[in-house]
Design a protein that fits this description.
By secondary structure, the protein is of the alpha+beta class. It has helices at residues 49-63, 102-109, 112-119, 128-134, 139-143, 150-159, 166-169, 184-190, 212-218, 233-239, 270-274, 297-305, 311-319, 341-351, 360-386, 403-413, 424-436, 443-453, 465-476, and strands spanning 2-9, 13-22, 25-35, 39-41, 44-46, 68-72, 78-81, 146-149, 164-165, 175-176, 181-182, 200-201, 206-209, 225-227, 248-253, 257-263, 278-281, 287-293, 392-397, 417-419, 457-459. It contains 19 helices and 21 strands. The strands form 7 sheets. The protein has a 7-stranded mixed sheet with strand order 17-18-16-15-19-20-21, sandwiched between helices. A hairpin with a 3-residue loop joins strand 1 and strand 2 (13-22).
Length: 478
């Protein structure tokens, strides 16, 4: 048995998990969990990166002796370093409005169709490329000698070594998914200095050793290596999908829902761009062909607005509300910003001529129905665009705890749903570290280990396909 510390940072919380891996065993326990609270300052919305790093150190100090450490987090955001390696300010939060209207300026130089054909990345206003375009004339960017994506920044603080992990880099809109290297022509045409980025790393590559001061602060005995994992949390989560074949779709649930397929090659057609699917890189040369859906962020924001009521009670109330009474487009960027979410959902229903949900139970049911509907559409369109049929949908991540959402997704997709594991990103993180030490074989071998060791729940569709088609038609007619 070996022990691995998986640092898994989400948009609302962080955790340090410890995975113990043996020839036919995989156990996961929580060492430390901490909040991830962005801070609104005069210049905008920022990540409290120092608090996150403190949470990582606290977690490592509680993890006990480990054989390796790996870090995954959300994508697109970054920190800038000066020539001495000092951070030039807190990383900007992807929900900050600085990128509003920036994409259109980028497309004036590299049209959207050309950009997609070169990088395969869906349009999202917060893509790293648009963030860099928004920061082009700032003193901070002019002073920067290095740009590190969030997990790479924390790895640098732990080890003193810099790198850019590929699965996360593939979300920047600056990577060619066919080659796994930088999209040099795109960067040149848009004036992006690729020398800002540290050399590319791949999952399983060594990322340095914990520095002496880190060992002293955490009480760990060195040497402790840090291993590059799928540092985009979705890449780690997809690696932990307990699939037993190739004909599967996945939905990684949490603040976002990422719904799609695992492919051998990117889909770079104009039809794929119009449907706003992204081609991000995964383990072993795979492509994560998926669509971003607003996810449980919608419910999280409502719960916050309602004063944090008991979630179990809320879901029971939602289960008693008539199905598909009102639905919203769960991929609409209008719901991206925080604040007033119940009112914004009600207004969207009012504007589309649907019954207006008023109680917390009604709004919660509207959200869950809408998410299931968005899952259905993403899974159906991904199969059509990629020519890759599926027989089962795997839901991993925090949404596996929401039995109502899982059942609604099975009903909407008309396919069985296998829910679990909940801590998929941390498990995928652990599996890559274990593989680097020779304890786990290929990607399929890791998935077989998951199916033997992790609790999974199966949901069968209960009919009603016509109601879901009608609800989708309702949305399309807006």
């Amino acid at each position: 048995m070996r022990s691995y510390a998986a640092v898994d940072l989400g948009a609302s919380s962080g955790r340090v998990m410890v995975g113990r891996v043996g020839p036919d065993s995989l156990e996961l326990s929580e060492a430390h969990r901490f909040a991830n609270r962005p801070v609104r300052v005069a210049e905008g919305l920022r990540w409290d990166i120092l608090a996150l790093y403190a949470g990582v150190l606290d977690g490592l100090s509680r993890a006990g002796q480990v054989d390796s450490v790996g870090i995954d987090s959300w994508a697109v955001d970054y920190g800038l370093l000066d020539a001495d390696g000092a951070l030039l300010g807190n990383p900007v939060h992807y929900r900050d409005p600085r990128t509003e209207g920036v994409a259109e300026k980028v497309w004036a130089t590299v049209p959207a169709a050309e950009l997609y054909a070169a990088t395969g990345v869906q349009y999202a206003p917060f893509n790293t490329l648009y963030q860099l375009a928004a920061a082009r004339d700032t003193r901070q960017l002019a002073s920067a000698e290095r740009l590190l994506l969030v997990p790479d920044l924390l790895t640098y603080w732990l080890t003193g070594e810099q790198g850019t992990e590929l699965t996360n880099a593939s979300t920047t809109q600056l990577i060619d998914p066919r080659t796994g290297d930088w999209a040099y022509d795109v960067a040149t045409r848009l004036g992006v200095d690729l020398s800002l980025f540290a050399p590319l790393r791949r999952p399983g590559d060594p990322a340095g050793l914990l520095r002496a001061r880190v060992l002293e602060e955490t009480g760990l005995t060195g040497p402790v290596p840090v291993t590059a994992v799928g540092s985009h949390d979705t890449a780690s989560a997809v690696a932990a999908v307990p699939a037993t074949g190739e004909r599967f779709a996945y939905i990684c649930t949490g603040t976002w829902s990422l719904a799609g397929l695992e492919l051998d090659a990117p889909v770079l057609t104009e039809e794929s761009r119009a449907a706003n699917f992204t081609n991000e890189l995964g383990l072993d040369g795979t492509v994560r062909y998926l669509r971003n859906i607003m996810g449980l962020w919608l419910l999280q924001e409502c719960v916050r607005a309602w004063g944090d009521p008991d979630l179990g009670v809320l879901l029971r109330e939602a289960a008693g509300v008539p199905a598909l009474r009102s639905v919203i487009d769960a991929g609409d960027a209008v719901f991206l910003a925080p604040g007033r979410m119940p009112e914004r959902i009600a207004e969207a229903c009012r504007e589309s001529g649907q019954p207006v949900p008023r109680t917390p139970g009604q709004i919660t049911r509207c959200i869950l129905d809408s998410l299931a509907l968005a899952h259905r559409r993403a899974v159906e369109e991904a199969q059509e665009l990629a020519g890759h049929p599926v027989d089962v949908v795997h839901i991993v991540g925090g949404g596996t705890r929401n039995a109502l959402l899982c059942q609604l997704t099975a009903d909407a997709c008309g396919l069985p749903v296998v829910a679990g594991p909940t801590e998929a990103a941390a498990l995928g993180n652990v599996l890559v570290q274990a593989r680097a030490h020779g304890l786990v074989g290929d990607l399929a071998g890791g998935r077989h280990l998951l199916t033997r060791t992790q609790p999974l729940t199966r949901y069968e569709p209960q009919g009603g396909a016509g109601r879901w088609r009608e609800a989708q038609d309702r949305l399309d007619a807006r």
